[in-house]
Amino acid sequence: MSTRTSQPAASKASFTIVISKRTVFILAGIILLGGIFSFSYRFVANDEDVTSIAIDNKDYDFDRMVPMVFGPELMNVGEQGELQVAVVAIDRKNQPVVTYNGASLQNAQNGLAKIPVKAMGSEMVLRGKVSITDNKGKAHSMNWIKSIKVMRPQGTISLPESNILYRGYNNQIEGVASGYDETVLLGEGIVLTRNTGYGYSGKITTSGDELGISIAGKSAVTNRTVTLGVFTYRVSNLPDGTIMLGTAGNGDEVTGSESVISVKTVAPGLQNIVYTVKSWELNCGALHFSGTGEKLSAEALAAIKKEAAGKTISLLVSYKTPDDRDHKGSLVLHRK
């Protein structure tokens, strides 16, 4: 089995933080339309709880209620996560002002301001302020803080059966792009097809001695595909097969009941390799027999049965390899 891992020098991923402090989070899902009401909420962009505040609804002209859901964008299989669901009331005529890195952003729409940031290091702690002006012209400001753990994506390609890619064989290739929900493998000189369960099957088309396979990760959230590495593998013809007569191999004893010729692979780990027997020639003492296909003739079997114990019997087999090469192999047997 061969496994190779690639890790880029620096992450090029980018994230967008959505800040919505100008909106009012009503966790109970109810907004009171008269008098003074108070409520408690947790600002989702901040890991610290914000204290309860009291608001006179005459200070703000809420004209729309919107459901909002916050949670992880990506999760690993089996990982536990959490969603935060809230109803927000907004005033579409009164947009918030968000401050980040000392600069005020004026791009808020429908109560939301977006801050593009580029992932760097291993963890980023982002801070700023958000302000909303009431009907009396007074600005109300609150601090916000957001921590982002930065992953360094990497790609790994494995050949679970061997460390070589073989012509004429359905090579099994597996890839993992960590940090992405989809793994994409591409290569020149090889046709890669996704398996129904897991991984890819690869058919070699190049006549060269090596080829490269690239691994990329694709995010379903951003729809971006990022190449994580390119790996070079050696390409070879399938090894010559081993001739068998029944269960008897080279140097074994036979009785004349073994009638089927087969060709077995000698490459460890490879599966479902089919060699096709085209023709055979058998020498038993002074007698010579020949035929086509994988079965010995009745005359050849009868001669083996009549042969004296310990005598040598030779078998020459012509066969075709899975990568469409004609080949010959021989087998030396002894009468039991």
Number of domains as seen in the coordinates: 3
Mean pLDDT: 80
For the biggest sheet, the summary is: 5 strands, antiparallel
Residue windows where pLDDT falls under 50 for at least 5 positions:
9-53
What is the N-to-C succession of helices and strands? EEEEEEEEEEEEEEEEEEEEEEEEEHEE
Total number of helices: 1
Radius of gyration (CA) equals 36 Å
E-strand count: 27
Strand percentage lies at: over 45%
Beginning-to-end CA distance, first to last residue:
40 Å
Helix content: under 10%
Q: SS-based structural class?
A: mainly beta
Largest beta sheet: strand ordering: 1-13-15-18-17
What would the principal axes of the Cα set say about the shape? Answer: rod-shaped
List the helices and strands and how they pair.
Blueprint: E1 2-6, E2 14-19, E3 24-26, E4 36-39, E5 53-56, E6 64-70, E7 84-90, E8 97-100, E9 103-105, E10 113-118, E11 123-133, E12 139-149, E13 154-159, E14 165-166, E15 171-178, E16 182-187, E17 190-194, E18 200-204, E19 210-218, E20 225-236, E21 242-245, E22 253-254, E23 261-264, E24 276-284, E25 287-292, H1 298-306, E26 312-320, E27 326-335
Q: Could you characterize the architecture of this molecule?
A:
With 336 residues, this protein is mainly beta. The protein has 3 domains: 13-149, no CATH class; 154-236, Immunoglobulin-like, CATH 2.60.40; 242-335, Immunoglobulin-like (Sandwich). The chain has one helix at residues 298-306; strands spanning 2-6, 14-19, 24-26, 36-39, 53-56, 64-70, 84-90, 97-100, 103-105, 113-118, 123-133, 139-149, 154-159, 165-166, 171-178, 182-187, 190-194, 200-204, 210-218, 225-236, 242-245, 253-254, 261-264, 276-284, 287-292, 312-320, 326-335. It is rod-shaped and about 115 Å long. 22% of the residues are buried.
